[in-house]
Structure to design on (117 residues):
């Protein structure tokens, strides 16, 4: 799946809101570079609520910024959880390997002790 980048966003903003430039575009550009959001999700945040009631560009763009921030935060949390899970499973594997080595050395030194008696 491809993610929405700024040039695609500008096309969506023009189609849905009729704007080609806006003061919030700079922040949206930055967030789109840092966030993985599909063009469909971006468009969903730009669509008017109903055909009779046209949404204001300021409100739509501010809503998109909030959605991008939430997506970015959710991705950071998911990444941290995945890293913690990976680290935990890695530590368990190390502990098991360490225990096995200790068991081997104990059994071999025990064998030596029995052999000298």
């Amino acid at each position: 799946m491809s993610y929405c980048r700024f040039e695609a966003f500008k096309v969506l903003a023009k189609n849905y809101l009729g704007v080609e430039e806006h003061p919030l575009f700079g922040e949206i550009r930055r967030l789109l570079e840092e966030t993985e959001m599909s063009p469909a999700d971006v468009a969903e945040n730009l669509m008017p609520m109903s055909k009779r009631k046209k949404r204001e560009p300021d409100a739509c763009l501010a809503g998109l910024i909030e959605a991008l921030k939430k997506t970015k935060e959710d991705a950071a949390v998911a990444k941290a959880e995945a890293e913690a899970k990976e680290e935990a499973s890695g530590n368990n594997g190390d502990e098991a390997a360490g225990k096995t080595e200790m068991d081997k050395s104990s059994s071999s030194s025990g064998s030596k002790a029995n052999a000298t008696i």
Notes: The chain has a mean pLDDT of 82. The chain has one domain: 6-116. The chain has four helices and no strands.
